[in-house]
């Protein structure tokens, strides 16, 4: 009952001192030494502090003999003295009263209750003798009636109660429920168990502190994430970073080396975390062994100017190298096919237009090995021929020139060869490296020689692939068929594609349900350099996308979702294309070694002059390269070439068409228009030196409609206007439009609202406006107000 009293009521410092016969200072000294110093003698003590006081006083006040403990308790009959003596040493360790204290203390009372049943042996007969005590007037009544009592059963029950109470104490519960728990819940054995458990916890904490924590750190990690992994506070990590001269907040990203230094300083063991992406797990990108590689067929693309005979050449090759029974009515199902020449296969891509070729190269699909440039012998080098040459050079693939229409009497191949030398295509017979084959797609003259040259060029390149692995290649073209769904033409570049394989191409994933070749025959598998048409994709893939055959369809769909998300993020992010504004900074950072320029002019003479002048601007740090020089308006193909080659477009007396404008804005291509050659040269030269003059952009303020015109003496014509959108601002630049034609371009001289001069008038209000040095104002005119803002480089 006293234990319950101690826990349910506040036990203060002076009460403990009074019960032990000590003064409050001694109790305060014990608490100061082993715990925290109490504020005053009225402070209530916790259970842990009471345990410390009891333990300290018990150790300092040892008993002289064991008899003093049992002086006031029940004595056993003399029939079983041996058992009592055997049990007494156990009680001595758990019950020790303060020395010289005749009155039993509050801490000894529960201990006596716990150990008393253990000290008494099982009795063979009922107790008859009264116990002898030093207090004669105290009456001890034995409530046990006649009969044998199994005390071991009660010992076991007592242990269970003690264990249960220990769990309650660990959970922080200090309520006692039930009379039996109040009597036997907190006994001396309980206290010992708590002390042992506390010692074990401290020991485990010490071991954990001595064992360094292993932290896995990736290439980049946030400061907050690093603190979390090291089980440290963010303030500690930031403080350590500052000591090392790194000023970073919790949201900042630091590299692996910095994070490793900080982690080691804070006592952690560092391991490099290697993050394996879904793409790395899914797609096999291992290099092939030399012994696994086998020769493959070359992939050839035919390019050239319109009406120079590209289609005729392709038709002749296709019809001359197929089975005789099919020669009459061949339907080409897909945009690629294979022919056999002298026992060797050649794959032709039916993508003769240079625009498709540029689009494929822009997506990084270098799927062609050889380019055949078709030039008409009677026509010579034309603009589209020059573009084709530039595209093939940018793709870094060998060019074989086929001079077509040799059957015509006006054919002049020598003139063609001379024109080709201007574009660094020197014929072999003139000491160059370019193979030139005179052919006639109409009569078939020289076509066998052309195909033989293609085979020879392919042999020189030693084209090889490994057919014994999962397939990967490129999407040549794709479309949505009304009956079959998404249909894709694939060119296998390495490995073998089987029917039933799961393939992933860009952001499309699916299973190959059926494969057909150029003749419409169904295939079960397709090896390297074999073009096939497949169905079974979930959506239409993009032309030029890489495709891979994979094993796990679920993971492939995860990768597709991830790619779609990355595309969405990339589309909203700014594109870092080269422009004249940031040209000098890129040169300074070592990023720009070549400045690629596309020149378009109104006449050939101007174009050549500009090209020569710009190439003279090259210096030690940067080389100016005019990758394309032609006559005519800036077209979409010019913008596509600039996008893939990271070039600037310079226009002389020419303007871009609408498609080119849209494509340039979408791809962030810098286009510069000039009317004087010196302006062009000076601007690019100053851009290379970092001295480009500031550029201004027009910021639209608002529009107003002229509702009435007033003539005021001394002022002139005043336009009574209604602001339809935005706002009118005094001092702003303005344009006066009449039938969408600019009549006047100047500035707003004054802005009146009623009789007051105002700085600006918002939309929905009327105002009076006068212009500087302009009086020709009519009703219905539209005023556009704008400001010119400098663009910060």
Unreliable segments (pLDDT under 50, ≥5 consecutive)?
79-128, 172-186, 322-333, 352-357, 360-365
Give the strand line-up of the largest sheet. Answer: 7-8-6-9-10-11
Shape: flat
Provide the gyration radius in Å.
48 Å
User: Structural class, from helix and strand content?
Assistant: alpha+beta
Q: Biggest sheet, in brief?
A: 6 strands, mixed
N- to C-terminal distance: 85 Å
Share of helical residues: 25-40%
Overall pLDDT score: 76
Q: What proportion strand?
A: 25-35%
* Record field, number of beta strands: 33
Specify the number of helices. Answer: 24
What does the model show?
The protein is α+β, with helices and mostly antiparallel strands and 793 residues long. It has 24 helices and 33 strands. The protein has a six-stranded mixed beta sheet, sandwiched between helices. Helix 2 crosses helix 3, helix 15 packs parallel to helix 22 and helix 21 packs parallel to helix 24. The longest helix has 23 residues. The radius of gyration is 48 Å and the shape is flat. About 11% of the residues have low confidence.
